[in-house]
Amino acid sequence: MTHIASSSAAAPAAVAIAAPRFGARLSAHPLARPLGALIVLLLINLFAVPGFFHLEVKDGHLYGAIVDILNRSAPLMLAATGMTVVIAMRGIDISVGAVVALAAAVACTMAAAEQPLWMAFAAALGAALLCGVWNGLLVAGLGLQPIVATLVLMVAGRGLAQLVTDGQIITVYRDDFFVLGSGYLFGLPVALYAALAVVLAVALAMRKTALGLFTQAVGINPVAARLAGIRAGALVFASYAFCAVCAGLAGLIISSNIKSADANNAGLLLELDAILAVTLGGTSLAGGKFNLAGSVIGALIIQTLTYTVYSLGVPPEVNLVVKSLVVFAVCLSQRSKA
Amino acid sequence: MATAVAPVLELSGIHKEFPGVKALSEAGLRLYPGEVHTLMGQNGAGKSTLIKVLTGVHAPDRGRIVMEGREIRPGSTQEAQDLGISTVYQEVNLCPNLSVAENIFIGRYPRKWGLVDWAAMRTRAAALLRDLEIDIDVSAPLSRYPLAIQQMVAISRALNISARVLVLDEPTSSLDEAEVQLLFRVLRRLREQGMAILFVTHFLDQTYAISDRITVMRNGEREGEYAAADLSRLALVNKMIGKPAEESDDAAVEMRQEGRAAANDAAPPSPVVLATRGLGRKGVLQPVDMQVRAGEVLGLAGLLGAGRTELARLLFGADRADKGDIVIGEKASGAFANPRQAIAAGIGFCSEDRKLEGAVLSLSVRENLVLALQARQGMLRAIPMQRQRELAEEYVKALGIRTASIETPIGTLSGGNQQKVLLARWLATDPRLMILDEPTRGIDVRAKQEIMDYVTTLCKRGMSLLFISSELPEVLRCSDRMIVMRDRAACGEYRRGDLDETTVLHAIAGELA
């Protein structure tokens, strides 16, 4: 809270005098903090990274740092969307990275074997869905604690991916396979459209049906929700299935982007980034109230941060330290809220 | 009591303001050693705030707290405890996953060579509980025991500190009759030892059973302090409400009930809405046969743990019955597998545990209110926002729910108003049968009356009510028919004509009486 507040205080004095009440209302908005953090990051880049906001048209599509960040943040946006739904219902899914690896392995193996593209993608998403069904059964069916239940797949998923790829890194040489991760549509990355389509679909489902109300009710008080006639167990189950499909789609984008499947490294620690994105976006890990738009912004913050650290010439290893500092700051700001 | 003795604790001129609310103004209290002093007042009268000031939770804006001649300013509950003021709160605030012994000694574990002396802790915990006539395994986790036992653990935890003042904030709200008597025996013993006991309750009977003196609070002020023997019940209620309270006069209620009973007798028996055939669950409830008729109030009486709540939960599908059928209209079916099926059949259920099983605390009044209706309609057919607002406004008005707006989180409402919202949640589904499990627990006299009045009005229009309450007079007053439960089985059924307190008490107590 404080670092955002101080940054807005540093804004032109005329604005601060003209609208203190407007400012107070603005800072009370749930998106104020994540958006503020993103703007601060972008401002740092404006001064520290020359040409950060430079855009040009190359090969018929937009080209520049911003576009690159948007493209690369698509998998994280997807993972964060799925994670938001799971966390809102008091859960957590730490198998996201493993599911990414499995989906990538299935897709690449089939694509490399000259199967039709739609079949490769469908099989990958199907495998991801099965993973989600497994997680959902453990949590909603058997009542295991979410972190333990998904830990099983976190460990086993990469093993399964290794089995699929036979321990090799599978490289694909097919132009149609690359469209999802590296293609452009109307000048913008295809991956971005895919991620935004999922985000939009979830947002609509939450708003236009009673899903949003039920999700919050289950997250805040599952016993009361069940007694009110909500299928609490089924919803929790579905949240894991959905989260895994999101991870599967993220896996498709990642493997399409790097044109290969690496069972060991694809989506490594993506679950932690997703959890961080959700938290940055203002959703409490205790469940209940959630903020989907916040999670998307959280994903953008993380990707921008990574980009900034790289372009400032900081060694890549330090990136993790920077991220951990951000996590630390988030924890502190959440503590002050409580 | 002996007025020559100086008060052990005296609060005077206490002011406390919260943003937008004046909670206490000129509030005060005098506690003498060796007395049980009851603090009475409606919800919102400032009882809880005054206790929180006394126990160091809130700092007063103005006013003095004098203990044994010295002015004190407890800054935390810990400080208050060190000064000799121990408190048992209304909501049991212990750690359910720790053992009973650990809960009693939390923060003050007995030590031996710098390590926790577990054996000594268990022995002393068992001894303390035996003083309360409770013999349980103190090494088992607290959550294994019913709420009533947990309450006793909380009390023995407070007793364990060598306290001179013991504050009990609604300790009896979850205890059954026998347990209340047990608690009172303990309190009398402590009184003889010279302890000053401050007792907060909503139950008039208990107030008169145990109190030496009564302080009445109204609108954050001390209305007056009275010797219990000199204050009639009617006068007490008048002072709490602040107006002549004919509504609460038992005689008046009795008369209205008689009128209704007469009307009922004249009419032919209404059709059976729902019946159970041997509904039961192993280890939980012996098979029960019962019938609920249209427009009738069916009371369930019995002690805590006699099977009242268990029957309600099996009926509603909250817990799964392993034998028996439920007959609705002409159609017999197995017991409901989940609440959804019961709701689809037109049943509503207000659980006895408002906080844990009813309110979704950080959601708004409106969202809480439409929850069951929306769940029955299904997720895809969202109730339009306009309709949700209308529904919420309608019930806020009909039930007199006091809330800033329908978008206020339900958690910020008082207990009575939360209960009204939860009641409205079910009424919005237009149920054939409404199950109310302890709907009036821990809420003030007026809210109680409003809730029961509203529900009985609905019964006149054909809704049936299954009513569970530990307050026998309340059940007797409201019910057309009553089923008495004992030892997890239904053991008797009484119609209005046969209903009187002694008969029912005998049935509850079993053959012995």
| Major sheet: arrangement of strands of chain A | 1-2
> What is the terminal separation of chain B in angstroms?
35 Å
C-alpha geometry of chain B: globular
Oligomer: heterodimer
State the share of residues found in helices of chain B, binned by percent: 25-40%
Rg of chain A, Cα atoms, Å? 20 Å
How many runs of DSSP E, i.e. beta strands of chain B?
22
DSSP strand (E) fraction of chain A?
under 5%
SS content category of chain A: mainly alpha
Rounded radius of gyration of chain B (Å) = 24 Å
CATH architecture of chain A: Orthogonal Bundle
Task: Tell me about the largest β-sheet of chain A.
Answer: 2 strands, antiparallel
Please state the average pLDDT score of chain B. Answer: 82
CATH topology label of chain A:
ABC transporter involved in vitamin B12 uptake, BtuC
CATH homology superfamily of the largest domain in chain B: P-loop containing nucleotide triphosphate hydrolases
Low-pLDDT regions of chain B: 244-263
Secondary-structure content class of chain B: alpha/beta
Number of domains of chain B: 2
Query: How many domains make up the 3D coordinates of chain A?
Result: 1
* Number of DSSP helical runs of chain B: 18
What does this entry look like structurally?
The complex is a heterodimer of chains A (338) and B (513). Chain A has 338 residues and is mainly alpha-helical. Chain A has helices at residues 2-9, 13-18, 20-28, 32-48, 65-88, 96-112, 117-141, 146-165, 175-182, 190-208, 211-220, 222-227, 232-258, 270-280, 292-311, 316-337, and strands spanning 56-58, 61-63, 170-171, 184-185, 188-189, 260-261. Chain A has one domain: ABC transporter involved in vitamin B12 uptake, BtuC (Orthogonal Bundle). In chain A, the strands form three sheets. Chain A has a two-stranded antiparallel sheet. A two-stranded antiparallel ribbon of chain A has the order 3-6. In chain A, strand 1 and strand 2 form a beta hairpin. In chain A, helix 6 (96-112) crosses helix 13 (232-258) and helix 9 crosses helix 13 (232-258). The longest helix of chain A is centred in the last third of the chain and has 27 residues, at 232-258. Chain A is globular. Chain B has two domains: 9-241, P-loop containing nucleotide triphosphate hydrolases (Rossmann fold), CATH 3.40.50.300; 253-346 and 433-441 and 466-513, 3-Layer(aba) Sandwich (Rossmann fold). Helices cover 37% and strands 25% of the residues of chain B. In chain B, strands 6-9-10-3-11-12 form a six-stranded mixed beta sheet, with helices on both faces. A six-stranded mixed beta sheet of chain B has the order 18-19-20-15-21-22, with helices on both faces. The longest helix of chain B has 17 residues, at 250-266. Classes of the chains: A mainly alpha (338), B alpha/beta (513). The A-B interface holds A 208-211, 213-214, 216-217, 220-221, 223-231, 288-289 and B 316, 318, 338-340, 343, 349, 351, 356-363, 367, 370-372, 374-383, 425.
